[in-house]
Design a protein that fits this description.
The chain folds into three domains: 47 residues, no CATH class; 76 residues, Methylated DNA-protein cysteine methyltransferase domain (Double Stranded RNA Binding Domain), CATH 3.30.160; 91 residues, Winged helix-like DNA-binding domain superfamily/Winged helix DNA-binding domain (Arc Repressor Mutant, subunit A, Orthogonal Bundle). It has ten helices and six strands. Strand 1 and strand 2 form a beta hairpin. Helix 8 packs across helix 9. The relative contact order is 0.08.
């Protein structure tokens, strides 16, 4: 039989109210049902303390470790992204993907594999594992470098905030070989005072190139910052056919 007063206390806990021990003690003094339950489990707890300590067998511990390792690998395989290097006209890229789309594009900085993968895992906030590039990912990258356009349905930025997604999707509307300002994107997505926040969204872009933050410049038309350096930003724009005009 469940005590209605205890259920009420439990509801308080679930709604974030901190229970007070004196309330529980006072209730226990007069509630016969709760006293019976308490005595029953108090006896069980006492009996458990009387049991001798049992050391696990030598065979059991390795089996437990193997089981935990298998569960971890199974869990990682469900949550992790696949990742590989990819040769491109811009140089070697790191590309990560899930079944939902490409989740990361980065230029290889010449780091060792372990360091590069650790940095990408920090950027994505989840594990990655090496794999062969599937045809659909390779096709998306080849199309991009031949047309400078990409199929947005093949990219997954679901891990970003709504504002960041809106900013990146608006950047993707900038035609190849053209640039727009951070302020332009801010106005277009309905946050005209958020040019600085747009710049931060571009800096956190996990799918560089495909979401073309390199086409976003400051109000004066200067190339401003870029994660791989302004020289690389200028090179990508030049490859797209951008020609800067005087102002």
């Amino acid at each position: 039989m469940r005590c209605s007063d205890v259920e009420a206390l439990w509801d308080d806990v679930r709604t974030g109210l901190e229970p007070r021990s004196e309330h529980a003690t006072a209730h226990l003094r007069y509630c016969k049902d709760c006293q019976a339950v308490y005595e029953q489990y108090e006896g069980v707890a006492y009996c458990l303390t009387c049991l001798p300590t049992v050391e696990p067998s030598a065979q059991l511990v390795p089996r437990i470790y193997d089981h935990i390792k298998a569960l971890r690998n199974r869990y990682r395989s469900k949550l992790s992204d696949s990742i590989s290097r990819f040769d491109s006209p811009l140089g070697v890229l790191w590309v990560a993907w899930r079944t939902s789309g490409i989740t990361f594009i980065g230029i290889d900085r010449g780091q060792d594999e372990e360091t590069a993968i650790a940095a990408i895992e920090r950027r994505l906030s989840r594990p990655v594992r090496l794999a062969d590039v599937p045809p659909w990912v390779a096709d998306a990258l080849r199309v991009f470098f031949s047309t400078w356009r990409v199929d947005m349905t093949r990219i997954d930025i679901s891990g970003l905030s709504a504002f960041e997604q809106a900013a990146l999707r608006k950047a993707a509307e900038i035609p190849p070989g053209e640039v727009r300002s951070y302020g332009w994107i801010a106005r277009e997505i309905g946050h005209p005072q958020a040019a600085r926040a747009v710049g931060q969204a571009m800096a956190r872009n996990p799918v560089a190139l495909l979401f073309p933050c390199h086409r976003v410049v400051d109000a004066s038309g200067a190339l401003h910052n870029y994660g791989y350096g302004v020289e690389v930003k200028a090179r990508i724009l030049e490859m797209e056919g951008y020609v800067k005009t005087g102002r």
